[in-house]
Amino acid sequence: MSVVIPLSSLRSGERGKIKAILGGAGAHRNLMDLGIVVGKDVRVIKNSGGAVLVAVNGTRLVVGRGLAMKVLVSKD
C-alpha cells in the first residue's frame, strides 16, 4: 500500500503518481491547465521550500507551494 502525501512534501528527484486534487474549482482549473491531473506521473526537479519545479508529460512546470499542497501523490 502506498502512502499519499502532498506534492510539496516530495524531495528533489522523487517521483509520484497524482491521486487526488483538493480545493475548489479554481485550483482544479489552474492545475488542469498545467497538465496536472489525477493519474499522471510527476517528478520533482527542485523543491527548496518555495515553489516546486516539477516535470509532467515531459514538460517542466513551476507550481506555487500553496497549490502543490493541494495535489496528493503516491510515492513510487
Report on this structure:
The chain has 76 residues and is α+β, with helices and mostly antiparallel strands. The chain is 18% helix and 42% strand. The chain has helices spanning 25-34, 65-68, and strands at 4-6, 15-21, 41-47, 52-56, 59-63, 71-75.
Q: Strand percentage, roughly?
A: 35-45%
Number of helical regions: 2
Total domain units: 1
Largest sheet strand order: 1-6-2-3-4-5
Category from helices, strands and their pairing: alpha+beta
Gyration radius, in Å: 11 Å
Summarize the helix and strand pattern as letters.
Answer: EEHEEEHE
The description of the largest β-sheet is:
6 strands, antiparallel
CATH class type: Mainly Beta
The average pLDDT is 93
So what's the overall shape?
Answer: globular
Give me the CATH architecture, please: Roll
So, the CATH homologous superfamily? Ferrous iron transport protein A (FeoA)
The proportion of residues forming helix, as a percent range, comes to 10-25%
Write the layout of secondary structure elements.
Layout: E1 4-6, E2 15-21, H1 25-34, E3 41-47, E4 52-56, E5 59-63, H2 65-68, E6 71-75
Antiparallel strand pairs: 1-6, 2-3, 2-6, 3-4, 4-5
List keywords for this structure.
76 residues, alpha+beta, SH3 type barrels, 42% strand
Short précis:
The chain is of the alpha+beta class and 76 residues long. The chain is built from two helices and six strands; from the N terminus they run E-E-H-E-E-E-H-E.
